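We store sequence, tokenised fold; for instance:
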Amino acid sequence: MGGVRSMVKKGLGEMGFNKGGGVINWFPGHMAAATRAIRHRLKVSDLVIEVRDARLPLSSVNEDLQPSLSGKRRILALNKKDLANPNIMHKWTHYFDSLEQDCISINAHSRSSVKKGRKAVDGNTPLLVLGSL
């Protein structure tokens, strides 16, 4: 059990799971560059549409960007609603409403969802979309 505890104390990037025991890079360069670009754009954005997976909206948060999002108007777009359980989707939207967080459930491949997202956004606001569709 002591070996597991020592592994848990290490950061993910410090764990050597490959045969030679070397360090594995868990955060590729292109992801780091994208994160830097998003942080830079956040400085000039008044509104952020944060795209999360509707099936696991709390687990699909990008924790590295959350401090940069404080003080920004944010709309949570729970994407892939067509793959999520409708009863649980309803509970998630109520949960975010209770936190006074704007939240819409969407399917990015649906024109009606895109229209729904456009209605949620004030047309004169600089916009940054976080997440992947």
